[in-house]
Amino acid sequence: MKKIIYLITLVTFLAPAIADDKANTGNKEAIEKFKYLGCMSCHSVKSAGIGIDASSKEESGSITPPDLSTVGKTRNSEWISNFLKKKEQIEGRSHPKIFKGDKAEREMISNWLASLKG
Ligand code: HEC
Hints:
This protein is mainly α. The chain contains three helices and no strands. The chain has helices at about 1-35, 75-85, 105-115. The mean pLDDT is about 85. The structure holds heme C (HEC).
């Protein structure tokens, strides 16, 4: 009986920790890609502790790039992925940046951004 109680306790405490760890690993990778692919030269994601990298600030025309902390409230990952491919537009405007990563990187970043709902 003691053994069973011990096991239940173990599972109760460990399961959320493992689930949490998984979520964080996914985010970490996506955040690394986001930085690596130069997104933070225009965008901040304040909710994830990402500020604009002023040292590599790129010209984005007359439109100020938005902070992406809550982009998942209005966009799903499919839309974001298409927008990055310039297959979606905002009021007739395409994304100013050519996406330099591969499909897997695009999907990883899109899924992560779509999960940001503030
Ligand atoms: C050269 C500057 C620049 C870079 C670099 C850049 N963006 Fe953007 N991004 C913009 C601008 C400007 C907008 C707003 C476009 C508009 O409203 O017409 C935008 C819009 C977006 C949106 C839509 C936001 C919304 O509110 O719907 C997403 C998502 C996005 N960018 C993701 C990314 C990702 C991911 C990267 C890196 C691969 C990236 N951006 C790199 C300038 C940039």
